[in-house]
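Regression test case RT-17, inverse folding.

Input:
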C-alpha cells in the first residue's frame, strides 16, 4: 500500500475489551486503566457497539472539501 495516499479519519469505536480478571478485582481506577490499555494494545477486544464518525468531524470534512459527495448532516453511522 502506498503511504502517500493514506488519510486518517477520526471516529468513535464501540468495543468490548476483554480483561484478565473480574472488574471487582481492580482496586483503583489507575489499575483498571492500565489493564484496559494493555488489553487494547494486545488486541483483546471486539468491535461490537455503536461505531460512527461524529457530526462535527463530518462537518469539518465537508468544510475542508475532503468529501467527494454531498453530506446532509448528522453522524455517519457504520454498520459492523
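Golden output:
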Amino acid at each position: 500500500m502506498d503511504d502517500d495516499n493514506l488519510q486518517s479519519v477520526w471516529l468513535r469505536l464501540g468495543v468490548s475489551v476483554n480483561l484478565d480478571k473480574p472488574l471487582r478485582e481492580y482496586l483503583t481506577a489507575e489499575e483498571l486503566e492500565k489493564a484496559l490499555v494493555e488489553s487494547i494494545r494486545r488486541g483483546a477486544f471486539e468491535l461490537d457497539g455503536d461505531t460512527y464518525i461524529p457530526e462535527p468531524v463530518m462537518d469539518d470534512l465537508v468544510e475542508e472539501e475532503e468529501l467527494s459527495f454531498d453530506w446532509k448532516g448528522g453522524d455517519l453511522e457504520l454498520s459492523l
